Amino acid sequence: MAQIIDGKQISSQIRDELKEKVEQYRQEGIRFSLAVIQVGADPASTVYVRNKRNACAYIGIESSAYELPEETTEEELLNLIHTLNDDPNVNGILVQLPVPPQIREHVVVQAIAKEKDVDGFHMANVGALSMGQPGFVSCTPAGIIQLLKRSGISIEGKECVVIGRSNIVGKPMAMLLLRENGTVTVCHSRTKNLRDVTKRADILVAAVGRPKMIDDSYVKEGAVVIDVGIHRMENGKLCGDVDYEKVAPVASAITPVPGGVGPMTVTMLMNNCVEAGLMASKEKRP
Predict the structure, then answer these.
(1) Active site amino acids
(2) Average of pLDDT values for 36-50?
(3) Is the confidence at residue 286, as pLDDT, over 60?
(4) 162 within 8 A of 21, measured Cβ to Cβ
(5) For labeling, which of 28, 120, 125, 261 is most exposed (least CB within 10 Å)?
(6) pLDDT value of residue 228
(7) Strands 92-95 and 62-68
(8) Mapping DSSP to helix (H, G, I), strand (E, B) and coil, where does residue 173 land?
(9) Which ranges in the chain are annotated with CATH 3.40.50.10860?
(10) Three-state secondary structure of 260-281
(11) Which residue has the higher pLDDT, 200 or 1?
């Protein structure tokens, strides 16, 4: 049976490390802060925002929430972002996505100062990743790298296949695996003979957005399988893009849903907030 990669445990470990680091820096007078903006009252977004604020409270990061009405205009949101960009007491800015239709998501993301873009979505940070330069990395792919490393799974020299090419997961995931010296293939809806490609993978990352699409016919014996998807089934239970019951007997290691990749996303956001605070403190020093 496959090794279960426990995202809850690894996430908790990293949060404790961050909490200790934040406490040490606080004694030196360095503070960390995150501003979270939510437009509208989408229930899922409200849950995510609460989780982020709770994580901040545990680690010792100050957080401020800006809850804007559904009818907020793009200009009003951009004005708030510019104000936060200029506020030296704010290290990180996050706009909870999705935003209402009258607001252009890409405009909002690019309006956040790159040094406060703790989501890692700004073009400058995406470009830095592609060039192998320092910058903030999208939280879910960064979390997956930590899951692999802290589970003792080597990436170097491995055949890695990513299913999905989104800007938030698929593309940065491929670049991070490349950075770790994996040999990377990205698959998508136009990929021909998908099973033939995925069955070559030593490490398979499923970020396709379709519940239980990946069964054992897609997976090589002994592969490591990372499931990024999360879906609620008719019976109310959660599942991922991977059919866990069919794939677990074939894989050497696998992430469950829930409790795999999910907990890591907020934790890596916290890590980015700490890094942003440290960068800001260095800039303030004479």
Answers:
(1) 52, 96, 119
(2) 92
(3) no
(4) no
(5) 28
(6) 97
(7) unpaired
(8) helix
(9) 28-114
(10) CCHHHHHHHHHHHHHHHHHHHH
(11) 200
